[in-house]
DNA sequence: ACTCAAAGTTAGCTTTGGCTAAATTACTTA
DNA sequence: TAAGTAATTTAGCCAAAGCTAACTTTGAGT
């Protein structure tokens, strides 16, 4: 109940710097990960991932999607020629798959903790990009123990 | 162990849109929250929060700090005249305090879960901006139960 | 009281990810 | 098969948050 009002154990400045840098780095990959995951979903669900649908899901204008797809293509995660359909590359598929696993791990963990499914889904969306491998392992173990 | 390979329960599109929007919104307040919290820390630790020190802690160039302080001032979270010292407003102090509480809640929860302190500290930095009140309450309850 | 180094700011550039409006392409259907 | 509509892209704008280089101010130490 009684938290010390200020950071009492000031880990080294370098360590803190590394943390902030890694948060900034994570932000740069968030967009890519969210897109690849949604594209995989849409292909699975409807047979194709159209910019229109991507825009609608993200709540964003279509030209924004076009612009971001260029980045995915630059990073060799999708195949995409103007006006043609979007395909994931092998690398894109793998990234999508690991993102989805991570997403589910976080959601299931939060639910196992007792958080309502809709809030779990919501919070997972923001949290998933910032969870280290160690934390992910602990999440999985916890969920597994809770409902064997 | 056997996760469905795709999102099986496709919550409504609107709900998903709201989630992505709220993640984008959270990103916009992250900087503000991190700054206010660090400024409070520095004032407490050293008596003042100098742009130099803020830059060093965040691993960022000084002019970046100057620019961001302008935003904090615009949002009435700090008092700051050029070349003069930085003060938190009442609103700034309150924001700093609630951010710090939230940060500690997340760190302590992760540690209670069994995650190593340094990784807990690291992950919390990214996670803290994306946890809802409901999740925060559950985190607190869990930590409290673990070590009474 | 002056000087000068350190701190802080300004100017101006870059990238990222939003947007709208306008142009282009593809597809359907009459 | 030709036209019209819907989808997509292009062009060009904005704001945020990073950077370097150059300038200004402060204040500490002779």
From TrEMBL, chains A, B:
Principal location: cytoplasm
Organism domain of life: Bacteria
InterPro entries hit by this protein: DtxR_MntR_Metal-Reg, Fe_dep_repressor, Fe_dep_repressor_sf, HTH_DTXR, Iron_dep_repressor, WH-like_DNA-bd_sf, WH_DNA-bd_sf
Keywords: Activator, Cytoplasm, DNA-binding, Manganese, Repressor, Transcription, Transcription regulation
Any single Gene Ontology cellular-component annotation: cytoplasm
SUPFAM superfamilies: Iron-dependent repressor protein, dimerization domain, Winged helix' DNA-binding domain
Residue stretches making up the HTH dtxR-type domain: 29-89
Localization, UniProt: Cytoplasm
Short name of any one Pfam family annotated for the protein: Fe_dep_repr_C
Gene3D superfamilies, A to Z: Iron dependent repressor, metal binding and dimerisation domain (1.10.60.10), Winged helix-like DNA-binding domain superfamily/Winged helix DNA-binding domain (1.10.10.10)
GO molecular function terms noted in the UniProt entry: DNA binding; DNA-binding transcription factor activity; protein dimerization activity; transition metal ion binding
Entries under PROSITE patterns matching the protein: HTH_DTXR
Family: Belongs to the DtxR/MntR family.
Subunit architecture: Homodimer.
Function statement: In the presence of manganese, represses expression of mntH and mntS. Up-regulates expression of mntP.
Protein name from the UniProt record: Transcriptional regulator MntR
């Amino acid at each position: 109940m009684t938290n010390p009002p200020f950071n009492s154990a000031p880990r080294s400045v370098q360590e803190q710097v590394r943390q902030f840098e890694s948060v900034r780095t994570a932000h740069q990959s968030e967009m890519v990960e969210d897109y690849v995951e949604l594209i995989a979903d849409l292909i699975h669900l409807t047979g194709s991932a159209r910019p229109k649908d991507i825009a609608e899901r993200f709540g964003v204008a279509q030209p924004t999607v076009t612009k971001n797809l260029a980045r995915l293509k630059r990073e060799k995660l999708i195949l995409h020629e103007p006006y043609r359909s979007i395909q994931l590359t092998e690398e894109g598929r793998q990234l999508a798959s690991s993102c989805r696993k991570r997403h589910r791990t976080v959601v299931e963990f939060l639910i196992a903790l007792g958080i309502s499914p809709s809030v779990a889904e919501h919070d997972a969306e923001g949290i998933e990009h910032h969870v280290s491998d160690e934390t992910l392992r602990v999440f999985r173990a916890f969920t597994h123990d809770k409902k064997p």
